[in-house]
Amino acid sequence: MAASTSAPATEAWRLMHRLFTSQRRRFWEIANEAELSPPQMGALLHLDPGRPLPMSDLADALACDNSNVTGIVDRLEARGLVERRPDERDRRVKMLALTDAGAEVRARVHERMGQPPPAIAGLSAADARTLRDVLRRALGPEN
Amino acid sequence: MAASTSAPATEAWRLMHRLFTSQRRRFWEIANEAELSPPQMGALLHLDPGRPLPMSDLADALACDNSNVTGIVDRLEARGLVERRPDERDRRVKMLALTDAGAEVRARVHERMGQPPPAIAGLSAADARTLRDVLRRALGPEN
DNA sequence: TATTGTTATACTCTATAACTATA
DNA sequence: TATAGTTATAGAGTATAACAATA
Fold first, then answer.
1. Strand segments (E) across chain A
2. How many CA atoms lie within 13 A of A82 on its CB side?
3. Confidence check: pLDDT of A1 > 50
4. What's the pLDDT tens digit per position in A94-112?
5. How far apart are CA A82 and CA A85, in angstroms?
6. How many Cα atoms within 13 Å fall on the side-chain side of residue A35?
7. DSSP state of B117
8. Which nt has its C1' nearest the CA of A93?
9. pLDDT tops 50 at residue B3
10. Alpha carbons A112 and A31: distance in angstroms, whole number
11. Residues of B in Cβ contact (< 8 Å) with A123
12. B55 Cβ nearer than 7 Å to chain D strand
């Protein structure tokens, strides 16, 4: 096996990783302009408008403990961006829902996060389509 | 007009973003096994063995304030993973260098972070090569 | 007994502002 | 005057453990 070059999948992943870490400053600015901390922005982005979610699902998505989500949601709720609602089927569960204000902030943040960085925006039309198609196959038909 | 050509790039970027956020738990586990906080892991990954770096460069890379790096580096230095060295050319500057122990931890973390997730590892050989080639063009010849 | 969410605790991260030592 | 790094401060994030309510 070739020792000097890694497998194409590994190199591709490393390149994607490098692209992402290069965007940290931009991500920070997007959160900052919305007056959100990074975890708060992550929470908002994970909430779909009109589809409430148990707190524990958010903890899974953010890869953190349940006890953590309590504080993050407390602050979002204090700003009126998110609501806690009871779940009729299991009264231990609290469902999180975006408020109208929260949906607006989320839409703005989502829009800006979705803008590709120059490295991707500058690809040829053919390369962009190819990249999209391969990633669609990688992530599965539901994406 | 612009919409039809920028759409594939935008979708590709969103797919990459989804792929990354889906890996949060794994990133957390890698940091955890090395007994590093996420910022500490980020710092270690940004330091190249044998290539000392000014603290302010690390602050740029981590997209945080200089004052922050002080604490992060304090803890890495207390564990013997990193060293502060004077810069002869500008005595205000402190250069950060990995110790041998730090280089070992960094290599382990770097190796694990570089392993592609199933979605990428499961691509066909042709798709993997295509993905790599497009990303090489996107990120430039130096990558 | 197990699970969901909260609270208490201790530590880390974070930005801001003020400080120092250089430049 | 400006810059690199530190310190002080206040607030947010974080895991752990213990707890209440519910399953």
1. 53-54, 82-86, 94-98
2. 30
3. no
4. 999 999 999 999 999 999 9
5. 10
6. 6
7. P
8. C4
9. no
10. 10
11. 9, 134, 137-138
12. yes
Q: Does B18 touch chain A (CB under 8 A)?
A: yes
A25: which 2 tokens?
């400053």
| CA-based radius of gyration for chain A | 19
Q: Which two tokens stand for residue B68?
A: 């922050």
How far is it, in rounded angstroms, from Cα A112 to Cα B48? 32
Between β-strands A94-98 and A53-54, what pairing exists: parallel, antiparallel or unpaired?
antiparallel
Give A39's strand partners.
none
- Which residues have CB under 8 Å from B69's CB, separation 6+? B43, B55, B56, B58, B59, B62
Structure tokens at B78: 């207390």
Length of chain B: 143
CA angle in degrees (0–180, nearest 5) for B67-B73-B77: 150
Residue with tokens 């960094």: B106
Q: Where are the alpha helices (DSSP H) in chain B?
A: 2-21, 24-33, 38-46, 55-62, 66-78, 100-113, 118-121, 125-139
